Amino acid sequence: MKKHWWKALSVLMITYTLWAGLMGEVPLREILDESIRNLYFHVTMWFAMLLMFIISVVNAVRYLSGSKEKFDARSNIYAETGLVFSLMGLVTGMLWAKYTWGAYFTNDPKLNGAAISILIYAAYFILRGSIKNPDQRGRISAVYNIFAFVLMIVFIQILPRMNDSLHPGNGGNPAFSQYDLDNNMRPVFYTAVVGWMLFGVWMSRIRYRIHVLKMKNETVEDITNEILD
């Protein structure tokens, strides 16, 4: 039980965030109004996504250095979790954009970069599915994963800062922490970030265990078939 404390902590953090995010006190700002509560749900998805992709690319590098199947599996699974978080971040962002900018999606460097990054990672899974040989799939996928991570950083973190952007924190537009994230919001926001990160790691570990059990089951079936034959 002592080994699983962080799992319970993630559930408590997310539960607290959901309650405080909907019922807690927030500063009323022009245009944003009550929609500022989405900060707890939109921005935190991207933080969790970034951690998942970092773990994924680290495992990709480890696979290239050792060619162990477990690193390829972990790289793939954490990329899957990261993609889920990115989609959740995109959806919550589109809802927020509709309220504040009048449209679900605009021709904005940050939004375009996020959409392109999601497509790049979606192509990663298409690539994996098209390669049958496990070793070849692992090597090519690992190289592409590194490529995808670098492009994601460029499209989401670098290019938007070099151009005019409606999105806070880019193109001279101040970030929320500079004028909206007051002392009432900070504890909830940081709790949400940590909670979703822990939850993402937890879900990925469950997926990896399922993968291991599946591989063991296939191995047993192969041995059984050989004996029967």
Residue runs with pLDDT of under 50 for 5 or more positions:
none
Give the proportion of residues in helices: over 70%
Number of structural domains: 1
Mean pLDDT: 86
Report how far the terminal alpha carbons are from each other.
44 Å
DSSP E strands, number? 0
What share of the residues does DSSP label as strand, in percent?
Answer: under 5%
What is the CATH first-level class name? Answer: Mainly Alpha
- Structural class by secondary-structure content: mainly alpha
Give the SSE string. Answer: HHHHHHH
The CATH architecture is Up-down Bundle
Please, could you describe this protein's structure?
- By secondary structure, the chain is mainly α.
- It has one domain (about 1-229): Four Helix Bundle (Hemerythrin (Met), subunit A) (Up-down Bundle), CATH 1.20.120.
- Helices cover about 75% and strands about 0% of the residues.
- It has 7 helices and no strands.
- The protein is globular, with a radius of gyration of 20 Å.
- The mean pLDDT is about 85.
Key descriptive features of the protein:
single chain; 229 residues; mainly alpha; Four Helix Bundle (Hemerythrin (Met), subunit A); 7 helices; globular
How are the SSEs placed, and which strands pair?
Blueprint (H helix, E strand, L loop, with lengths): L4 H19 L15 H28 L2 H32 L8 H22 L3 H25 L17 H4 L6 H43 L1
Outline of the structure:
With 229 residues, this protein is mostly helical.
